[in-house]
Amino acid sequence: QVTVGVLALQGDVREHLHALRTAGVATVAVRRPAELDAVDGLVLPGGESTTIDKLLRIFDLRDPIRERLAQGMPVYGSCAGMILLADSIVGGTADQETLGGMAITVRRNAFGRQVDSFECDLPMPALGDIPVHAVFIRAPWVEATDDAVKVLARVPQGHDAASGRAVAVRQGNLLATSFHPEVTGDHRVHAYFADMVRHT
Ligand code: GLN
């Protein structure tokens, strides 16, 4: 049995814990380095990436998480979590830093300032034939990737500037989605991540 942590400094922690339990893994909310030590994989939830960046330092979790990332711990970042995993960001605040690890550039609040949320049915072949209902909340998208990064889903045509944008990506043990699968009751993304953790 593997244990997956959810970074619990800010954001929709409970929903991720629930989705992970449904996917059949043991879970723990991570607020302290000792809790991080006990997990085999980690979810970085949505929230506000600038706030989470600050809280990571205050809670002395930034360096320990970066260390685990460097050691190959599987990490799944959703929305703000995707921003935290990105090596570089467009539209960040002046002093905003990320944890990094994924060779992607993400644009914060990419769907437009006036578009607070956006939903669509998103084909994501890694999860099977049925599209995922993707809920984007002031979400980033991926603007650039390097060859090591596999794009798992792109916004379908018919959604203006968002069409064709990469919104789910994987690089080795790192997974990131622009959207929030924890709010829909479809736990296939969490099940996919749970399998990544089991096979590490
Ligand atoms: N706009 C937020 C940020 O830049 C992310 C929003 C979210 O996680 N739902 O951190």
UniProtKB/TrEMBL annotation:
Keywords: Glutamine amidotransferase, Hydrolase, Lyase, Pyridoxal phosphate
The UniProt record lists the keyword Transmembrane helix: no
Domain of life of the native organism: Bacteria
Enzyme Commission numbers on file: 4.3.3.6, 3.5.1.2
GO cellular component: cytosol; glutaminase complex
Presence of the UniProt keyword Lyase in the record: yes
Biological process according to GO: L-glutamine catabolic process; pyridoxal phosphate biosynthetic process; pyridoxine metabolic process
Active-site feature positions: C79, H180, E182
Binding site for L-glutamine: G47, E48, S49, R108, I137, R138
Pfam families (alphabetical): SNO
Catalytic activity: L-glutamine + H2O = L-glutamate + NH4(+); aldehydo-D-ribose 5-phosphate + D-glyceraldehyde 3-phosphate + L-glutamine = pyridoxal 5'-phosphate + L-glutamate + phosphate + 3 H2O + H(+)
Molecular function per GO: glutaminase activity; pyridoxal 5'-phosphate synthase (glutamine hydrolysing) activity
Protein's pathway: Cofactor biosynthesis; pyridoxal 5'-phosphate biosynthesis
HAMAP family, alphabetized: PdxT
Role played: Catalyzes the hydrolysis of glutamine to glutamate and ammonia as part of the biosynthesis of pyridoxal 5'-phosphate. The resulting ammonia molecule is channeled to the active site of PdxS.
Subunit structure: In the presence of PdxS, forms a dodecamer of heterodimers. Only shows activity in the heterodimer.
Family under the similarity heading: Belongs to the glutaminase PdxT/SNO family.
Protein's recorded name: Pyridoxal 5'-phosphate synthase subunit PdxT
Species lineage: Bacteria, Bacillati, Actinomycetota, Actinomycetes, Micrococcales
Gene designation per UniProt: pdxT
